[in-house]
Amino acid sequence: MNIKKHIPNFITLINLFCGCVAVVFVSEQNYEMAFYMVCLGIFFDFFDGFFARLFKVSSPLGLQLDSLADMVTSGVVPGYVMFSMFTNSAHELGTNPVIPFLGFIVTLGSCYRLANFNIDTRQTDSFIGLPTPANALFILSLPLVLKFSDSLMILEILTNQWILLVITLCSAYILNAEIPLFALKIKKFTFKDNVLQIVFLAISIVLLLLLQFSAIPVIIIFYVLLSVINNKFLKK
């Protein structure tokens, strides 16, 4: 039996396991551990593809496993977090018990994106729409921003159901929007060919050092805006 061909799929299953554990932590409202488990899942999600290319064992099975694992780690978990945030928020939309389930619109948008990604041949070197891992990090950072911030304004924003609904709808939209976004993969080891990635990573590190969890949504928004600027001006 060729062990090497099973290594990427095993790594993908570890990603799925991390997502399952994150679901449990969200159910316990332990958002910090859920965030770390999703980060770990995203780490393994990167390396399953890396080893598949390294060992030249890419397969249709691996592609399907990757999407199914991402569906849990980067789809179900952020949707569940939004459900939980709706549940814990002030009831601007009323006390209808259906309202919190609107958070799972994030999961629906993630599912559609993952299915579309598998058949979209344009997304080999870059992305069309926000990748599900980036969106998951954005959503999972919100309750942590709320927990560790002393700002009353942030408290009012992230416990307002109308704002949570806007975030949910924007999340589902940006996942599937026809907006080209640059990838962080480095193919040529020259500064000129990677200046965009280097600038983004450098600013992201500074933001993380200064703002900690609060930096994550800022970084994701910055990533989208930088891609839009790059599309409109730098490639003319």
Automatic annotation (TrEMBL):
Pfam families: CDP-OH_P_transf
Source species, domain of life: Bacteria
Keyword annotations of the record: Lipid biosynthesis, Lipid metabolism, Membrane, Phospholipid biosynthesis, Phospholipid metabolism, Transferase, Transmembrane, Transmembrane helix
GO molecular function (one): phosphotransferase activity, for other substituted phosphate groups
Membrane topology: Multi-pass membrane protein
Primary localization: membrane
One GO biological process term: phospholipid biosynthetic process
UniProt entry tagged with the keyword Transferase: yes
Annotated GO CC locations: membrane
Keyword Hydrolase applies: no
InterPro entries (UniProt xref): CDP-alcohol_PTase-I (IPR050324), CDP-OH_P_trans (IPR000462), CDP-OH_PTrfase_TM_dom (IPR043130), CDP_ALCOHOL_P_TRANSF_CS (IPR048254)
Localization, UniProt: Membrane
TM region positions: 7-27, 33-55, 98-115, 127-146, 152-175, 195-226
Similarity field: Belongs to the CDP-alcohol phosphatidyltransferase class-I family.
Protein name according to UniProt: Phosphatidylserine synthase
Source organism of this protein record: Flavobacterium hydrophilum
